[in-house]
């Protein structure tokens, strides 16, 4: 069930805010990191919460993340082509 919390969405993290964190859309990539207070994302310019909208797709796009724990641990530090 998709529910809008109105003005409360500006004060606390809601399910819709968290859904956008997991969205596969390009505009939502690397957005919505706050755990409780979305003002932190507004301050750092990482908030993405389109009015009256929900993501159409979820997941990771692009390069697949390694399956193992060790590979995931070093993944952010490895050299990337290009």
Structure description:
This protein is mainly α and 82 residues long. The protein has one domain. It contains three helices and no strands. The chain has helices at residues 15-21, 39-44, 69-74. It is elongated and about 40 Å long. The termini are far apart.
Give a brief description.
With 82 residues, the chain is mostly helical. It has helices spanning 15-21, 39-44, 69-74.
Oligomer: single chain
Number of separate helices: 3
| Uncertain parts | none
Strand content: under 5%
Largest sheet data: none
**Count of the domains:** 1
Mean pLDDT score: 91
Structural class estimated from helices and strands: mainly alpha
Rg, alpha carbons: 15 Å
Tell me the layout of helices and strands.
Layout: H1 15-21, H2 39-44, H3 69-74
């Amino acid at each position: 069930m998709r529910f809008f919390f109105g003005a409360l969405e500006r004060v606390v993290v809601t399910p819709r805010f968290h859904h956008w964190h997991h969205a596969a859309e390009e505009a939502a990539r690397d957005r919505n990191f706050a755990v409780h207070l979305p003002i932190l994302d507004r301050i750092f310019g990482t908030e993405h919460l389109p009015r009256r909208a929900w993501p159409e797709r979820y997941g990771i796009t692009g390069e697949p993340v390694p399956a193992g724990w060790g590979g995931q641990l070093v993944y952010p530090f490895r050299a990337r082509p290009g």
